Every structure is written in C-alpha cells, then in structure tokens.
C-alpha cells in the first residue's frame, strides 16, 4: 500500500493503518531498534511502542515520508528505552565523522556547528538517494555496516567504501562552502 494511503488511514483513525505500517516497514523498524538495543525482547517492545507513538502522532503530524517518520520514532524510542535500561553500548561510529566535523567543545565550535548542520543537509540532498540512505542509516540510525549491506545486498567492504567516498565528498563540500574541516 502507498504511504499516502496509509497516512490517510491514520488521519481517518482507521486501526488498519498500524497493520499496513507494520506490513510495509516492520522489518526496517525492527532492524533500526535492534541496532540500538541488541536484545530481541526489548526490540519487540520498542517496535510495539513505535506503532503506538505513530498512531498517537498522526494526526496532527503530516509526514512527508512515512518511512523516515516511522524510523525516526523507532530510533528515538529505542534510544529512550536503552537509556531507561542503562544499557546503551552503541559503538562510537562518530569517530568516523570526527575528522570531518571535529569535536565541538567550545563556543566557537558551537557557532560553527550552527553553520555545519544546514550545510550537511544540503550536501546529503545533492547526492544519490542510495548513498544518502547508506550515510543516514550509519550515522543517524547507528546501523552496523553488516546490517546496511544486508538491506542493499552489498558486501561490508562495498558499504565501507561507499561511506568513505561520501565522507570525502562531504569534506570537499564543506571546504567549498567555507567551513574549516
């Protein structure tokens, strides 16, 4: 079923919206949650809470991309549950980006960050959809390289190479836009 039809079901308060969402995005929601929680029972709880939170937020929310909307809810729910359980042991994947965006510990860095975020977003909009999805899955949803490879039918090496190229492209784009990296 198309996303706009599923959103219409939410707006009509039709409970089949949850069933359709689970059918279309259930595996992705599970994977996003599992990458953070690393526990099947907690992931199932997170998945159920994600669908409830989606139900409670549409309306009034009007998501442009149901997939991104539901995955963001899943991610935030998993992080909150992980903190609640005091087990958040996500690998520090941001070390991969630190050489590009730096470590923001002083006021000048915070000012620079205000310029950085819109520039990163603009760069991501300018690259191919698949590359943007891989980058987002890694650095926003904190998915493992193996899980990303599974989603796209790629080897882990191919994912690493793609991430490296995207980071290099981001570094060049930031320099072109006057942001020191």
Estimate nothing, just give the exact number of structural domains: 2
Question: What order do the helices and strands follow?
Answer: HHHHHHHHH
SS summary, helix count: 9
Alpha-carbon distance between the two ends = 44 Å
* Biggest pleated sheet: none
Going by CATH, the homologous superfamily of the largest domain would be RNA polymerase sigma factor, region 2, helix turn helix motif
Work out the strand percent.
Answer: under 5%
Task: Indicate the radius of gyration in whole angstroms.
Answer: 18 Å
Task: Walk me through what this model shows.
With 181 residues, the protein is mainly alpha-helical. The protein has two domains: 3-85, Orthogonal Bundle (Rna Polymerase Sigma Factor, Chain: A); 95-176, Arc Repressor Mutant, subunit A. It contains nine helices and no strands. α1 (3-11) crosses α2 (16-37), α7 (129-139) packs across α9 (156-176) and α8 (145-152) packs across α9. It is globular and about 50 Å long. The model is unreliable at 87-91 (pLDDT under 50).
Architecture blueprint of SSEs:
Blueprint: H1 3-11, H2 16-37, H3 40-57, H4 66-85, H5 95-101, H6 107-126, H7 129-139, H8 145-152, H9 156-176
Helix pairs in contact: 1-2, 2-3, 2-4, 3-4, 7-9, 8-9
């Amino acid at each position: 079923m198309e996303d706009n039809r599923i959103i219409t079901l939410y707006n009509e308060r039709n409970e089949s919206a949850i069933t359709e969402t689970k059918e279309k995005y259930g595996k992705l929601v599970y994977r996003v949650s599992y990458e953070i929680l690393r526990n099947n029972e907690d992931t199932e709880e997170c998945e159920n809470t994600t669908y409830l939170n989606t139900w409670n937020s549409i309306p009034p929310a009007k998501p442009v991309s149901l997939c991104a909307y539901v995955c963001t809810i899943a991610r935030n729910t998993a992080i909150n549950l992980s903190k609640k359980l005091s087990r958040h042991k996500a690998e520090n994947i941001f070390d991969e980006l630190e050489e590009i965006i730096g470590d923001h510990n002083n006021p000048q860095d915070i000012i620079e960050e205000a310029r950085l975020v819109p520039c990163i977003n603009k760069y991501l909009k300018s690259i191919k959809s698949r590359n943007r999805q891989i980058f987002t899955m890694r650095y926003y949803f904190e998915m493992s390289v193996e899980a990303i490879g599974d989603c796209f039918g790629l080897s882990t090496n191919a994912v690493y190479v793609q991430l490296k190229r995207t980071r290099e492209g981001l570094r060049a784009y930031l320099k072109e836009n006057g942001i020191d990296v």
